[in-house]
Write a structure and sequence with these properties.
The protein contains six helices and seven strands; from the N terminus they run E-H-E-H-E-H-E-H-E-E-E-H-H. By secondary structure, the chain is of the alpha/beta class. It has one domain: Rossmann fold, CATH 3.40.50. A hairpin with a 2-residue loop joins strand 5 and strand 6. The N and C termini lie far apart (70 Å). The relative contact order is 0.13. The model has no long low-confidence stretch (mean pLDDT 86).
Length: 198
């Protein structure tokens, strides 16, 4: 069964487990298995164990669906941003969703004579996207719900089914090659004695 890693700050919600179960049901309705970060993670797990588990699940997934909704500020969750970068580096297809329909520039700062600036005077990028361009290019699709992102991932995976693995061709091992060489040598010796050295 193809799998989706469900990235996002959803694990911090008050109803995190219920929400995760619903996301996995949506995956199952599309014939996919959802990998939710809270699954199988004991509450007392250390930071490194949690990080390694999430990275291993991304490695094992066929695609990633990520919640990039603003979290604790105008930008997405930084842990999810790391997971997206890791998934991209592992060449996993990524499908984004956000419950905030506004562009980044509409959420951050205000217009000045020298461009759009935040409260500290830093320039705010204006590419028309819903998040920093390294997360979502302006032409990228950012879905409005997790259900829509999961459906898009399912369609993509259906269109890109893994090709069947080739049947391995039998290869000769070293001992088999030595055995064949010995038989050829014996046969050559026999034929030489029989026909050449009479």
């Amino acid at each position: 069964m193809r799998t989706l890693y469900l990235a996002g700050p959803d694990i911090f919600r008050p109803d995190a487990e219920t929400h995760g179960a619903r996301l996995k049901q949506v995956c199952a309705a599309h014939g996919l298995k959802g990998l939710y970060p809270l699954d199988g993670a004991p509450p007392e797990a250390g930071a490194d164990a949690i990080r390694r588990k999430c990275m291993a699940e991304i490695d094992s997934a066929d695609a990633v669906v990520a919640n990039i909704s603003p979290f604790r500020g105008p930008h997405m969750d930084p842990g999810t941003a790391f997971e997206l970068g890791y998934a991209e580096a592992r060449r996993k297809p990524v499908f984004l969703w956000s419950d905030n329909p506004h562009t980044l520039i509409a959420r951050v700062g205000s217009a000045t004579e020298t461009g759009w600036r935040d409260g500290d005077g830093h320039l705010v990028e204006d590419f028309g996207g819903r998040e920093n361009l390294m997360i979502a290019l302006p032409e990228s699709t950012v879905f409005d719900t997790p259900d829509a992102a999961i459906a898009a991932a399912a369609d993509h995976l259906a269109d890109h089914a893994p090709s069947p693995r080739p049947v391995p061709r039998p290869t000769l091992g070293l001992l088999q090659m030595i055995g064949i060489a010995a038989l050829v040598a014996l046969a050559a010796g026999y034929l030489g004695d029989r026909f050449l050295f009479k």
